[in-house]
Amino acid sequence: PVFAGMNGSAIENFSCVIYNVSLMNCTWQAGKDAPGDTQYFLYWQNSRYADAMECELYIKDENGRNTGCRFQNVRIETEKAYFLVNGSSKESLIQFYDEYIELYEIEILTPPLNVTVNCTRDPAGCIMTWQPPLTSHMGNVNCFQYEISIQNK
């Protein structure tokens, strides 16, 4: 496909992460050949049926250029979310960048809840129990996998 705009002006290293159940940060770097006055704007659509929305809280660099976005109250839907970052400059047209992302793949899960350990002297040893981590979308707790690291016996 042919994209309007100067080569090397689109953003680079676009990356998003979801944390604390419903917060999301996306960051990017300015295109290496983008003019100095280039400003970038992020739009996203959480699903096909949702409205496209512009970022409400940009992360800015020391020059006031948008290099990221903070989101609140993010819900992880069953389909991919669509992200688009376009730019504007007085000097030239800026290429856009877009990507579809499965939000559950970028979620940093909270720790498991209510971890308890009960140890006895008999051969049964210790019984450890916990509840699944909090998440905005989990339909099936059997999808979680856990790893236990025992530091000393």
Q: What report would you give on this structure?
A:
This protein has 153 residues and is mainly beta. The protein is 0% helix and 39% strand. The protein has strands at 12-19, 23-29, 39-45, 53-54, 57-60, 66-71, 81-88, 97-101, 113-119, 126-131. β5 (57-60) and β6 (66-71) form a beta hairpin.
Observed structural traits:
Immunoglobulin-like, 10 strands, elongated, mainly beta, 153 residues
Proportion in β-strands: 35-45%
CATH superfamily of the domain at 12-105: Immunoglobulins
CATH topology of the domain at 12-105: Immunoglobulin-like
Count of individual beta strands: 10
End-to-end C-alpha gap? 60 Å
Give the topology string: H per helix, E per strand: EEEEEEEEEE
Low-confidence stretches: none
Number of helices: 0
State Rg: 22 Å
Provide the fold topology.
Elements: E1 12-19, E2 23-29, E3 39-45, E4 53-54, E5 57-60, E6 66-71, E7 81-88, E8 97-101, E9 113-119, E10 126-131
Antiparallel strand pairs: 1-2, 2-6, 3-4, 3-7, 5-6, 7-8, 9-10
